[in-house]
Amino acid sequence: MVRILENKVELVKENLSYDDVLSKIEQATRLCYRSKRSETREGREKFLKNLIAVDHESIIEHGSLSFLITTDRACANQIVRHRLASYSQESTRYVNLSDLEIVLDHSYGEEEKERIVSRCIDMTLTYGSLGGDKKSTRDKARAILPLCTATRLYMTMNFREIRHFLKLRLDKAAHQSIREVAYQILKIMKEEYPVFVFDFDLADYEDIYG
């Protein structure tokens, strides 16, 4: 059995609230100047926005977010190259992938998907014949798995690195799959932590799902 999934990003609920993050980062920053802290959310947002606008972004390293990401192995290989972050990733050595899940981004047409699924069905048969259903031989069997194999990442990244990630991975030159991941992160940021992406416009990236 082969099942097609889409790229998906979820915000981990244990993250600090927006107001808590604003307060924490402002407190750390005000220390530099011995200046008075803002009394309102709007004041804290304005203070941080002004500093981000002049590239004084080291201050936002004091805050971070965690995301649960479902993507393909090829895309995950690119994501984990962003080393100013922490990752935990699903293991192909310990997880039985006999019922294979794959991730195909929105650039694939229906005929292409059918051809890929057909080949993946053959691969799952080989995976089983190599002992993929047994812990003792699973590390050998995983050699047959394709790069579109679904994988799940737990990613923790500070706000400065999130901005860096978005600048690189939303670019039209980036691969479609990682652009979809970046777009979903940006959408979460716009909804939950807007001041940190005030200079990004979702409308600029509508082609990703167009």
Automatic annotation (TrEMBL):
This is FAD-dependent thymidylate synthase. GO terms for biological process: methylation. Pfam families: Thy1. One of its GO terms (molecular function) is thymidylate synthase (FAD) activity. The lineage of its organism: Bacteria, Bacillati, Bacillota, Tissierellia, Tissierellales. Keywords: Methyltransferase, Transferase. It comes from Anaerococcus murdochii. Its EC number is 2.1.1.148. CDD domains: ThyX. It is an enzyme of class 2 (transferase).
